[in-house]
Amino acid sequence: MAGSRSSATARPTSRWLHARSRPRRSKPAKARASSHSSWSSPTTVCPSSCTPDNDWADCLTVEQLTEIWAPDSTVDNWNQVDADFPDQRLTLFGPGADSGTFDYFTDEINGEEGATRTDYNPSEDDNVIVAGVSGDKGAMGYFGLSYLLENEGKIRGVAIDGGGGCVVPSTETVQSGEYTPLSRPLFVYTKAEAAERPEVKAFVQYYFDHQEAITEEGLFVPLTEEQVAVAEEELAAITSR
Hints:
By secondary structure, this protein is of the alpha/beta class. The chain has helices at residues 29-35, 62-69, 78-81, 100-110, 126-134, 145-150, 171-175, 198-209, 211-218, 225-239; strands spanning 17-20, 36-45, 48-50, 59-61, 91-95, 121-123, 139-142, 156-157, 159-161, 166-167, 183-191. A 5-stranded mixed sheet has the order 6-5-7-3-8. A 3-stranded antiparallel sheet has the order 1-11-2. A 3-stranded mixed sheet has the order 4-9-10. The longest helix is centred in the last third of the chain and has 15 residues, at 225-239. The relative contact order is 0.22.
């Protein structure tokens, strides 16, 4: 994600290994499977948040988020989101268009990457977004889960109802897959022919052997033990060729 302590997936310079936030869509799945190998990697998440002074928006549906963030939205008061909410001006903060968080959020909430209303307060620095949300009772924004956890007391996460009931953003609900659709798995891809090279095998093995440290440094949500086990099985299948 954008910012000085960004948790967005960096675009690596390696010609052998690529990390992406979602499976490639440019090729049919069959063709993709024959030319690349992939593993699930740590997860990043973009929760909606507001100030603790906001005591009405405990949970929002995906439909309400779409109503707020759609390109043609004119919603500028909380009582337009829900008639039971107070007459309070709604101010929006979020990442700029260069952010992977922006791409994911707009795709999941508005159905298309980059599709969003433009009259919000964008920043490539998540700390600026946190400051904006925490300083305005009627504000709401989205950014990395790590920034939410680091600023407890200044901001709070908004539960999201993706169709199965309200779920609060947390490490546990992201790992379990309950916090949907605003949590995204990251994937590691290697070209099939590159995976035969010992240095590439060693690099990928190192990645998973040290995933906890990488997760902490990159501000991701770590894999569970079960997810690590699956990744190691998939890796073993490649390295045993």
